[in-house]
Design a protein that fits this description.
The protein is of the alpha/beta class. 27% of the residues lie in helices and 30% in strands. Strands 1, 2, 3, 4, 5 and 11 form a six-stranded mixed β-sheet that branches. Strands 8-7-9-6-10 form a five-stranded mixed β-sheet.
Length: 310
């Protein structure tokens, strides 16, 4: 497998900045790709070792392109996650004034994060989506658009000027990125982990989703993300992407997944990996009755009952 990581390019994206925070990125060739699907397909095709892509932001939730790519196609697995604080700059060609801007561009995920700023400062501007924020900067350099929302760090790379900086509608906005590779044995638990799965309902009926989520609740497993995605089979037919606290090696998480596997026609495991920015000592104590030791004690008790040794 080539010692290289693909990422949502071109150079100068927030994705590249987040990727370079990983220590192992310094030892890999970093390969910019034109889209999230292209980056993930490069992993599936064996062209790169892994792909680094955005999956969630704190303003709009899940990045649907990434979620849909992980739901469909040959299975892939998440190995790492990175959180990056996000603030935008309005990048323009040198000499451009604010009142001369008629068209702007950026990645679709950027629009909800600057919508109110646009309404207040450029209410009549025309918005066009680009493949990435850095690609939007490239298009401005080429004269396709008047301005782009991107990271201020991208200005010098594309010969642009940051006309306005520190643009964000929501304070402390963050984007979550994940390192995705081919399926393999998960890394050992750290005590501050996350497990991601996608589940499909067997049938739609009142309380159907609640029944599935109870597999987590009764075992004391907290959910960190729940997002529905259409399956493509028709209106109202959805699967559900879930991030849960814990590692598949923990009994409470493993038993919740086994319960889902019994109840669902399909469960896609997306990996167990360390939570970004969280240490084991920061994780809330487990609810009584949900630790591995308590699961083992209960299992031993059941075995004694079955053997008549109670």
């Amino acid at each position: 497998m080539p010692a290289s990581y693909a990422y949502l390019g071109p150079e100068g994206t927030f994705t590249e900045v987040a990727l370079r925070t990983l220590p192992e990125a310094a030892t890999r060739e970093l390969v910019p790709m034109v889209s999230v699907p292209a980056a993930l397909d490069a992993v599936r095709g064996g062209e790169v070792e892994a792909a680094f892509v955005p999956i969630e932001n704190s303003v709009e939730g899940g990045i649907t392109t990434t979620l849909d790519e992980l739901v469909a196609g040959r299975p892939l697995m998440i190995y790492r996650e990175v959180l990056l604080d996000i603030t935008f700059a309005l990048l323009v060609r040198p000499g451009t004034k604010l009142d001369a801007i008629k068209t702007v561009t950026a990645h679709p995920a950027a629009q909800p994060q600057v919508r109110n700023w646009l309404k207040a400062h450029l209410p009549d501007v025309t918005w066009e989506s680009s493949a990435s924020n850095a690609d939007g900067a490239r298009l401005v350099r080429e004269g396709r658009y008047d301005a782009a929302f991107a990271g201020e760090f991208a200005a010098a790379r594309y010969g642009l000027e940051p006309l306005v900086t520190e643009i964000h509608d929501a304070e402390n906005a963050q984007t979550r990125f994940v390192l995705v590779g081919r399926p393999a044995r998960p890394a050992a638990p750290t005590g501050a982990d996350k497990t991601s799965v996608v589940i499909w309902q067997r049938e739609d009926h009142p309380g159907a989703l609640m029944e599935l989520l109870q597999q987590f609740a009764i075992r004391g497993v907290n959910l960190m993300l729940l997002q529905s995605r259409p399956t493509g089979k028709g209106i109202g037919d959805y699967c559900f992407a879930i991030d849960a606290e814990g590692h598949i090696s923990e009994r409470r998480v493993a038993e919740a997944l086994m319960g889902l596997k019994r109840a669902c026609p399909e469960v896609r495991y997306l990996g167990s990996y360390p939570r970004a920015g969280v240490a084991a000592e920061d994780v809330r104590p487990l609810r009584t009755g949900t630790s591995d030791g308590e699961f083992v004690t209960a299992s031993d008790w059941l075995a004694r009952c079955q053997d008549g040794r109670f």
